[in-house]
Please model this.
Amino acid sequence: MRLRNVKGSRETIAANNYVIQTPEDYKGKWHDFFQNNNPIHIEIGMGKGKFIMELAKQNPDINYIGIEKYSSVLVRALEKRPELETDNLVFIRMDAENIVDVFEMGEVDQIYLNFSDPWPKDRHAKRRLTSTQFLARYNQFLKPEGKVIFKTDNRPLFDFSLEQVEEAGWILENHTFDLHNSPYVEGNIMTEYETKFVAEGKPIHRMQISREV
Ligand code: SAM
Model:
């Protein structure tokens, strides 16, 4: 992804109430933070946040946490956040490599990965958000019956992810190589990248995975 440095984005983020500045402090305490016992769903690499904002609007009884590595991208989500009149969505600016510092075992019910960076070089495979290394991280905080839902237009990344799911001993609950011509499209919320790729006629791949309960 090509990034444009957005002037003042770090300062904007530091001053924004919807951004959790020290998320490690809430490890094991996210339900206290939201002041309810509703399920917690997270999106890792949320970009400008269209997908998670729409989910939060549709499901006021679910708490959402959007995670994004770059300030210059996260500020775009913050610009739209006031349109949402509910308290069920907050953001964290962090590299997901450190995600186990932020969530306690069983604290998260669902993880969304949308159009994650492909990291095409073999030596960077462990940075892919569906690598066995990342699945091992999710294993440390996802509820036993929790799910990871992954969408991408990138076939090599999707094929790699299918292999990693098997290698990690996770269960492939369902998958499709063409989401928009499959039954799984019902209720699908488009991300920014998805909107662009669908307009270009590219098929979208999607998988839903979980662990043995
Ligand atoms: N999910 C959005 C969508 O579908 O429109 C954005 C997709 S964009 C290709 C991938 C996003 O993931 C970027 O904003 C990038 O900064 C973020 N990202 C990549 N690796 C990350 C990581 N390790 N931790 C947090 N965010 C990450």
Summary: The radius of gyration is 16 Å.
